[in-house]
Amino acid sequence: MKKWESRPIWYGSLLILSISGGLFLWGGNPQARAVSDTTMSLGKAAPIMPSGVTDSFYHVYLSFDDGPLPGSEHIDSLVLAEQVPASVFLVGHNMSYNPRMDSYYKLYEANPFIHIYNHSFSHAAGHYRFYYNHPQNVLADIDQNQQYLQLHNKIVRLPGRNTWRIGNRSRNDTAGGDQAADLLMQQGYRLFGWDLEWQHNPVSGVPLQSVATMEKEIMSRLASGNTFTKNHIIILLHDEMFRRPWEEDQLKALIDTLHKQPMIVFNDLSTYPVLSSNQTYAHP
Q1: pTM tops 0.70, yes or no
Q2: Mapping DSSP to helix (H, G, I), strand (E, B) and coil, where does residue 279 land?
Q3: E-assigned strands of 45-184?
Q4: What domains can you pick out in the chain, each with its CATH number?
Q5: Average pLDDT, the chain
Q6: What is the pLDDT of residue 172?
Q7: 130 in the Ramachandran plot: left (φ > 0), alpha (ψ -120 to 50) or beta?
């Protein structure tokens, strides 16, 4: 399922200029953020697995894109209450000019169940085709976000692209970006796409599928092996989907419903199996 490519409101303050075929990005303070003492003293929680977990279990990865945004604070509190690992792919520009978004980032930093990853500094400012036509500038944008967030991992999700580069396995998005993905891989980055998206209205943020529909699709894909890695499913969500209490309740309902499945365990993407294979998978 394709990810929405609408432009969130916050992109309006980011200036893009094309000079001699190059991409130049301005917006916010590009300097690295200071790491709080609280963050340094807190270790991240291990994946929730019952003893004796083997590959016969189904592994679910909740991944949230585009934060910090309104809704991030609800994701943070729910993940903490439910004590499930969550992977958040953050856009540095969001917090570089907005103290409120920076406060949401600090919540994520302090949450032992939240694992922070790279979703680029600019999110291409919504201009995806132009962005991916300049692979070196994509690398620079990812590097800038890596420095800004002071990340110690090299896990990335490309903005607007369901592209994979993990070990020797790859999958390309039909919309392009392959050269940029290959360049990032050469620099040691691991690129994660997703197996299933919980879609939302790009204007209101309202989730489109019901919890029951999502549960059915998750279990169907796991049972059929219709995922990038058998028995593992990465679910794409967006922070802006959970701005209202009833939307947060929907996320809780999905987590609780999956918890009731005896074969389901929740994981963070840092535990995703890195398999060696010479196969390249076309996007379905």
Answers
A1: yes
A2: coil
A3: 58-67, 86-90, 114-118, 155-156, 164-166, 169-171
A4: 58-272 (3.20.20.370)
A5: 84
A6: 98
A7: alpha
83 dihedral zone (left: phi>0; alpha: psi -120 to 50; beta): left
Phi, psi values for residue 222, rounded to 5°: -65, -45
Cα–Cα nearest to 104, from 68, 137, 80, 75: 68
Q: What is the pLDDT of residue 230?
A: 96
- Give pLDDT < 70 ranges for the chain: 1-55, 275-284
Residue 240 is which amino acid? Answer: E
DSSP codes of every residue in 178-219: HHHHHHHHHTT-EE---SEE--B-TTT--B-S-HHHHHHHHH
CB of 235 within 8 A of CB of 61?
yes
pLDDT at 33: 53
Which residue matches tokens 């270790």? 43
